[in-house]
Write a structure and sequence with these properties.
Layout: H1 28-35, E1 39-43, H2 50-64, E2 68-73, H3 84-102, H4 120-130, E3 135-140, H5 147-161, E4 171-176, H6 180-187, E5 203-208, H7 214-228, H8 234-244, H9 248-262, H10 273-286, H11 289-296, H12 301-312, H13 323-330, E6 334-337, E7 340-343, H14 346-356, H15 358-363, H16 382-403, H17 410-423, E8 427-433, E9 440-446, E10 449-458, H18 463-478, E11 482-489, H19 498-501, E12 503-509, E13 512-518
Parallel strand pairs: 1-4, 1-5, 2-3, 3-4, 10-11, 11-13
Antiparallel strand pairs: 6-7, 8-9, 9-10, 12-13
């Protein structure tokens, strides 16, 4: 039976075409703010449903008939070389064009005339004055604006604020990837604040759109079951929740990958856990637009600091004043779980190291040939693999890490690249990384065997002892007794020569057999 609806992975959702949750289902705060004629911000990472929410909100307000509401994007003015005058005109033009999508013609904003100079404030004032109902303006992509243009737009909104609701929009929502506190660093990085006369002090509330719960994923997937009879079991939903962390685009993308690509829309076929793993791998390998825009952010210095710390397990002070941390959280790349700061979900945890070390993987030629490390019985020879890596690391690491963007996390990423090359031939790597643990744990599964590796930088003389305690605890949680502790020396070879730093030692520790591999 063919379904009329499908899982959407591009653009905003429409109820007649897509499986979707009501974006306004738990947003009574928005209606409350509109009633109180407040200005507020909505922020969320890319593809978490912001545009869907805005369109739904504007259409609902217009349908109920108490307000005039329009959603429009200011992105057309989002480039550095633009003058304030040109920006004003472009923004006004975007607003005018959006009226057609949301409003009856008699409610439209006035048609802009190219020859006339406009300020956004005057334009909104003229529009509001001619209308009998309050205007609710939903202004999207606000953080695409730069410097003086951003300040100018926010100042005009603040100046008009006093005239609401008769002479200015009664509510304006600024919508973007980040909270308003982020705009000030974008405007004048050298100043912590724009002072009390700043354009930001009119904001009543900041609303962050969160990820979905298991219950919400269940509700979304049950729409597919209702249409087609094809079931996502409870264990499937649990697994998809682990993979996606409830990130809306990923939740849709995994389901779409399974239903349409893997099972080719044959709704009689049963969805299994193996399909979830296959979908995960496909999305990572294909790097769809969502994942690409996420990975683009990894080049930013603020993101790099945090991502490096997670890969190494280095400490970060978690506080609300750590703007970098909040920024990377706002982007949806990381989240806080109890005391740990980790990548937001399993797919990000997997794809981020793989993308960062991709060029390394490509350059590991002969040494990374899977067949070299396979025993006659098809099992992986981990000792041989790690000894080969030691030799490879000694020969290449200094030259490679020098050119590498993520220097801090370089040793860890280089080993992961080496392993990935070999493991791709028939196994998988599960990574455990969190800020402040001082280590990275890898669980490698290959042809029925499991190998535990713990990676640690030798920042202090106590690193070896700490590493032994940590891997022993990690093995306990897995119910295993054999593991590898990999210690990377961070001092240059001019201080500690390779002859003394490359070591291999088997020790018995707390009833475990641990191989210590140093380099």
């Amino acid at each position: 039976m063919k379904s009329k609806r499908y899982f959407n992975t591009t653009g905003f959702c429409r109820p007649e075409k897509h499986y979707m949750l009501d974006p306004l289902r738990n947003q009574s705060v928005i209606f409350d703010l509109i009633e109180k004629e407040q200005y507020f911000t909505i922020h969320a990472p890319r593809q978490t449903g912001k545009t869907t929410l805005l369109h739904e909100l504007a259409h609902r307000l217009n349908k109920e008939g108490n307000y005039i509401s329009v959603v429009f994007s200011v992105e057309s003015a989002g480039y550095r070389s633009i003058t304030e005058e040109t920006a004003n005109f472009k923004i006004i033009n975007s607003l005018y064009q959006a009226c057609e999508l949301f409003l009856h013609k008699k409610l439209w904003a006035p048609k802009p005339v190219i020859t006339k100079k406009y300020s956004l404030q005057d334009y909104l004032n003229k529009w509001a004055t001619t209308q009998t109902k309050p205007i609710i303006l939903l202004l999207d992509e606000i953080d695409s604006l730069y410097d003086d243009v951003l300040v100018s737009v926010l100042r005009q909104l603040r100046n008009g604020f006093q005239g609401r609701p008769k002479h200015f929009p009664s509510t304006i929502a600024l919508v973007g990837l980040r909270d308003v506190r982020e705009y000030k660093t974008k405007v004048r990085p050298s100043e912590a604040s724009l002072g009390s006369g700043s354009p930001f002090n009119i904001k009543a509330e900041s609303i962050l759109l969160g990820t979905w719960t298991k219950e919400e994923i269940t509700e979304l997937y049950s729409q597919h079951t209702k249409d087609t009879g094809q079931v996502f079991s409870k264990e499937m939903i649990n697994r998809i929740y682990e993979l996606t962390g409830g990130q809306p685009w990923l939740v849709n993308a995994v389901a779409n990958e399974i239903v349409e690509k893997i099972l080719k829309s044959d709704f009689t076929k049963k969805i299994t856990l193996a399909h979830a793993e296959e979908a995960k791998e496909n999305l990572i390998k294909r790097r769809d637009t969502h994942l690409d825009s996420l990975l683009d952010k990894l080049k930013e210095p603020r993101v790099k600091n945090i991502v490096s710390a997670i890969i190494n397990g280095d400490s970060l002070v978690y506080d609300n004043f750590n703007d970098d941390l909040l920024y990377v959280m706002d982007l949806g790349i990381i989240r806080k779980e109890k005391y740990d700061i980790i990548f937001s979900n399993e797919i990000y945890r997997e794809i981020i190291p793989r993308v960062l070390n991709f060029s390394m993987q490509e350059n590991i030629r002969e040494e990374g040939t899977t067949s070299w490390y396979i025993k006659p019985n098809g099992k992986l020879d981990m000792d041989k693999l790690l000894k080969a890596f030691q030799a490879f690391y000694r020969e290449n690491s200094e030259m490679w890490l020098e050119k590498f963007d993520y220097k801090e996390a370089g040793p860890h990423l280089l080993l992961m690249a080496f392993l990935q090359r070999v493991i791709n031939g028939g196994g998988r790597i599960n990574r455990e990384m969190a800020v402040g643990t001082g280590r990275t744990d890898l669980l490698i599964e290959f042809n029925g065997d499991k190998f535990v590796l713990e990676l640690k930088l030798k920042r202090l003389p106590s690193a070896r002892q700490k590493g032994l305690d940590q891997i022993s605890r990690y093995l306990d949680t897995l119910g295993m007794t054999k593991g590898y502790l990999i210690l990377f020396e961070i001092k240059p070879s001019s201080i500690i020569p390779w002859e003394t730093r490359v070591k291999w030692e088997d020790v018995s520790y707390q009833n475990k057999n641990i191989t210590i591999v140093e380099m």
